[in-house]
Design brief:
eight-stranded mixed sheet, alpha+beta, 10 helices, binds coenzyme A, Aminopeptidase, 2 domains, GNAT_dom
Length: 371
């Protein structure tokens, strides 16, 4: 192909992909000063003028000429906003890469650009497009999810940036796939009742998480928790909440005091991708010791039940049935279930492991939307 004459302009009316020009060097140089851009891509750091110049006047044009990569400038709101490229590979499988100026982010620009390039790649006969990002690049992962990439896996140390190995997420889409989200990426709306507020976890909640999960009673009834439960464990727990909701597996709220924003407990709905029944969910919780005995958890679970039974199109989890389990002797937990209308439907014998190697009976509760 000739550059720039043969570079196809692609547009959906809001975002336009076009050949780069020398006028893009300055804004491209500016984008690459962004620490977020430097963190998640392989661009040189420090990023100098000559890097931008070489990339736009040598690397991109030669990619079009020899067919090794197709890079477009993203134009949005009448100006250069970033770059997206396709790198063809063997067997009709190629990769996509992208970066956007901070001012243009969170407007759906990259999702539009990705969809335009996917259409082009498949028109050119590609079978599959692969997306890769370093683990933790949630903005990029969300773009990939919104554009229909699927079957995401984590490949340890698969990536490398400036000599440092990084864990990578990898997902792909084929020409026969619908370029739309697969599965849910749940939101964590604020839920409120008198005396309790439920919100998304923040890293600043870690200290109170560690306190709550080190507590003797929490440790006794939740035998799967790390022991001792360190601040590191609390930080990992909080970080892992994003994966749980992005993968559609569940939603976790921190229960806080509405006046002080201090953590009172945790409540989750999980198993939302249950292999046989994707209309069910399981509720789990723990309370900080200083928040116990005043109905905090009962209120919080009530709010979560309402959200879980709300249809997906109204912002809820669209559940038909909720399950809840409590080990023999955990009367406080069974009380929370009962005051929220759950029915005890049976006992699983010797199903709850304890820390000292015993197995207690598990009381099984459920609640139907129609109850
Ligand atoms: C990744 C990037 C291209 C996204 O571009 P964008 O135009 O903002 O993407 P979109 O607006 O289409 O979608 C981004 C979504 O991710 C969300 N998001 C952004 N950062 C996030 C974060 N840290 N955690 C969770 N969600 C995040 C946005 O809110 C938006 O969500 P929405 O769809 O609900 O509005 C841009 O952030 C970027 O250039 N980052 C630096 C370079 C980079 O990471 N490139 C990809 C390397 S694999």
């Amino acid at each position: 192909m000739r550059f720039p004459e043969d570079v196809p302009a692609l547009t959906d009316g809001t975002v336009t992909l076009r050949a780069h020009t020398s006028a893009d060097i300055k804004p491209a140089f500016d984008v690459c000063q962004d620490p977020v851009m430097q963190q998640w891509t392989t661009i040189p750091v420090p990023y100098e003028w000559q890097h931008a110049e070489q990339y736009l006047t040598e690397f991109i044009p030669s990619g079009w000429r020899d067919g090794s990569s197709w890079g477009w400038a993203i134009e949005y709101d009448g100006r250069y906003a970033g770059t997206i490229d396709l790198r063809p590979g063997a067997g009709g499988v190629g990769e996509i890469g992208f970066g956007l100026a901070p001012w243009a982010r969170s407007n759906g620009v990259m999702t539009r650009a990705v969809k335009l390039t996917l259409g082009y790649a498949f028109d050119q006969g590609w079978e599959r497009v692969i997306w890769r990002a370093y683990v933790g690049n949630w903005g990029s992962r969300r773009v990939a999810w919104k554009s229909g990439f699927r079957n995401l896996v984590m490949a340890p140390a698969h990536g490398v940036a400036r000599g440092v190995r990084k864990d990578e997420w990898i997902a792909s889409i084929t020409r026969d796939d619908d370029p739309e989200p697969q599965g849910h990426w749940w939101s964590v709306p604020v839920l409120e009742a008198d005396g309790v507020r439920l919100r998304e976890f923040r890293s600043t909640d870690a200290k109170r998480v560690a306190e709550a999960c080190s507590d003797e009673r929490t440790q006794m009834w939740l035998a799967g928790l790390p022991s001792p439960y360190t601040l590191d464990a609390a930080e990992s727990f909080i970080e892992s909440r994003q994966e749980i909701r992005a993968s559609g597996e569940g939603v976790t709220w921190v229960i806080v005091d509405p006046d002080t924003d201090e953590l009172l407990g945790n409540v989750s709905v999980f198993d939302l991708r249950n292999r046989i029944d994707q209309t069910m969910g399981e509720i789990g919780y723990w309370a900080h010791p200083d928040a116990r005995g005043r109905g905090v958890m009962s209120k919080a679970v009530g709010l979560v039940i309402r959200h879980a039974f709300t249809p997906v199109e109204d912002g809820g989890l669209g559940r038909r049935r909720l399950a809840l389990f409590a080990a023999e002797g955990n009367t406080a937990s069974m009380h929370v279930a009962e005051v929220n209308g759950f029915t005890e439907v049976g006992v699983e014998r010797s199903a709850s492991p304890t820390r000292d190697g015993r197995f207690l009976d598990t009381h099984c509760f459920d609640l139907l939307r129609t109850d």
